[in-house]
Specification:
The complex is a heterodimer of chains A (about 210) and B (about 210).
Chain A (H helix, E strand, L loop, with lengths): L1 H16 L11 E7 L3 E5 L22 E6 L5 E9 L6 E2 L1 E2 L8 E7 L6 H9 L12 E6 L9 E6 L4 E6 L3 E6 L22 E2 L1 E6 L1
Antiparallel strand pairs in A: 2-3, 3-11, 4-5, 4-10, 4-13, 6-7, 7-8, 7-12, 9-10
Chain B lengths: L1 H14 L1 H15 L4 E8 L1 E4 L10 E9 L3 E11 L5 E3 L1 E2 L5 E2 L1 E10 L6 H8 L11 E10 L4 E6 L5 E7 L2 E13 L15 E9 L3
Antiparallel strand pairs in B: 1-3, 3-12, 4-5, 4-11, 4-13, 6-8, 7-10, 8-9, 8-13, 9-12, 10-11
The chains are: A mainly beta (about 210), B alpha+beta (about 210).
């Protein structure tokens, strides 16, 4: 009897092994596609030029260079905002944080038509706005509006060692960042004088992922 | 010797009327089971170009259904999980006709950061907006069935879309081919709201006897 049962089961087994049968549904198959990373920064308008009042060095309007940061990454991204101005010795860091200043940060602009030597920029930075106006011809420094944290968007910190802004981007998507050098304010003390020749005073601000 | 025993046993088996009843009973168990097998093949993975959302290659899946009888109401389903870990149909279609082929939109959802139900719904809507369908991308899918089978887009009691398949006996191929171009408004590299992760859709046949 047992053998007969085995025999019958073996016949049944043959029927079963001929095909894969599913009781209710097939296994779930995942179709997947992996997306690459988007990480870009583009200039995003803003006011990039102004006139300098020859009497007191005030800017006619604010300078407000803008950037658009785009990333689809869900992980935090680190960026650096740096600035350079040209000198006879090549570009040098234009951001600085004077010793006397408790709050404000500054940016040095140099005359692109009559480049100063780099020590003139150093003089502006080291001596808290220069001991006198004679030692920094063709360099003018202006206060810039501090960058501040934006909750859930970005954290910012000024690095005094490297004179740059370190930015941590907290979200994906498109994020605008604007820098402001206010208009109508006097330049940093002793950085504007008749020693500053006519010409275009410039600095280049760069935002980059690190 | 074993073979002889087996042969005797077999002869005894088929000649004994009392056992014949048992055999008939067991044969009945075999006959009532529809023989349905499904072989699944396809191209299951690819990459997405982050600049425009284009797939590196079509995603395809083919169900080869072998059945010894006609089958109705086999359901081709595609689902994704939303941010509440709820399964939602990933298929949408404006067509309700019955035929051997059909087209629809298929939503792929971020597997690491699942989209909201609203985001998936926007991908399935006639018009989509990148800002409100983050972490979900839709692509055009085409379905085909051979062996004189038919496909019909239907909604279940929960308003979830699926394809109802009618299959004649024999071998029937049911295929889904997901094209490479994203549905307009479901991917935008400037808004960048579809993460650098893996997007997926889960596909299967349901209601198989």
């Amino acid at each position: 009897m047992k053998k007969q049962t085995l025999f019958l089961l073996s016949i049944l087994g043959l029927f079963i092994s001929n095909s894969i049968s599913y009781s209710a549904q097939t296994p779930i198959t995942k179709l997947s596609a992996t997306n690459g990373e988007i990480k870009s920064i583009v200039a995003n308008g803003g006011q990039l030029s102004a006139n300098i009042d020859v009497n007191d060095g005030k800017l006619s309007n604010a300078l407000t260079p803008g950037f658009l940061i785009v990333t689809n990454s869900n992980s935090q991204k680190s960026l650096q905002l740096t600035a350079t101005c040209n000198t006879q010795d090549g570009p040098v860091n234009a951001f600085f944080f004077p010793l006397f200043s408790l709050e404000y940060h500054y940016i040095a602009l140099t005359n692109s038509n009559v480049l100063p030597p780099s020590h003139c920029v150093d003089c502006v930075k080291k001596f808290n706005g220069a001991l006198n106006s004679d030692n920094n011809p063709n360099v003018i420094a202006y206060r810039m509006t501090n960058l501040e944290d934006i909750p859930n968007v970005m954290d910012v910190r000024y690095d005094n060692n490297f004179n740059r802004w370190d930015i941590t981007l907290l979200k994906r998507g498109a994020t605008a960042l604007n820098v402001e050098i206010p208009g109508g304010e006097l330049p940093l003390t002793n950085t504007y004088s008749t020693c500053d020749e006519g010409g275009n005073y410039q600095a280049t601000i760069t935002l980059s992922f690190i | 010797m074993k073979f002889l025993k087996f042969l005797l046993l077999f002869l005894f088996f088929i000649s004994n009327k009392a056992y014949a009843d048992i055999v008939a009973l067991n044969n009945l168990l075999i006959e009532v089971t529809p023989t349905v097998s499904v072989d699944i093949q396809g191209n299951y993975s690819t990459n997405i170009n982050p600049d425009n959302g284009t797939l590196g290659s079509n995603l395809t899946i083919n169900f080869l259904v072998s059945s010894n009888e006609d089958l109705n109401n086999i359901r081709l389903k595609a689902i994704v999980n939303d941010s509440n870990n709820t399964s939602i149909s990933a298929i949408s279609s404006q067509q309700s006709s019955i035929g051997s082929n059909a087209s629809c939109y298929v939503v792929l959802a971020n597997n690491t950061y699942p989209p909201t139900a609203a985001s998936i719904a926007d991908c399935k809507a006639p018009n989509s907006t990148p800002q409100i369908n983050e972490e979900a991308i839709a692509y055009l899918g085409t379905l085909n069935i051979d062996n004189q089978g038919t496909l019909e887009y239907q909604l279940d009691e929960s308003n979830q879309g699926y394809y109802n398949c009618t299959i004649l006996n024999g071998n029937t191929n049911i295929s889904l081919n997901i094209g490479t171009t994203p549905k307009p408004g479901t991917y935008d590299s400037q808004t960048a709201l579809d993460g650098d992760n893996t997007f997926e859709v889960m596909v299967y046949l349901d209601n198989i006897p």
